Task: structure prediction
Amino acid sequence: MRYLTVPGYTNSGPEHWQTHLENTYAGFDRVVQDDWDAPDRDRWVARLDETVRGTEDEVLLVGHSCGSVTAALWAATCWDSRVTGAVLVAPGDVEAEDAPPEITGLAPLPRKQLPLKTHLVVTDNDPHLSLERGRSLARAWGSSIEVLPGGGHLATADGFGEWEGIAPIIERVSGRTLRRRTRSDSR
Result:
């Protein structure tokens, strides 16, 4: 299985939990956007689709913030059955009145059940997604959901750099045990 991390607006830096996953476990690759500072619905979904189609194995998507939104948009419009699931962490509410203007180019959000197993991880104090909105998205997308109290946006600044709790979530959704990277694993 391949695990594709799908970072959000401004990418995930060297201390971000997505980067730690890629550096710690085998089988992780990052979806790389051309412009991390200007999320664009069509371009970001097309890049995710191109990356998925360039992978021969089964795939699990692991999104954060606008990357979670991109994964949901892709699933609603381009889904490939080799993608068996997605862990969508702290999706940004790109439709909110107070959403940063830089991320509103990803709107509108899907309003239908997604054709793959999805699991939302949200918090009760995310400045970019209210808990009520997270629950509403989970219902619309047919996703399971878990709430991490006090986790903010589940980003590096919120204490989620080397986030040990994400690996068990990915294992639960994928049904597979993650394997630690060895020297023989190529990057």
In short: The first strand starts at residue 2 and ends at 6. The chain has a mean pLDDT of 96. DSSP finds five helices and six strands in the chain.
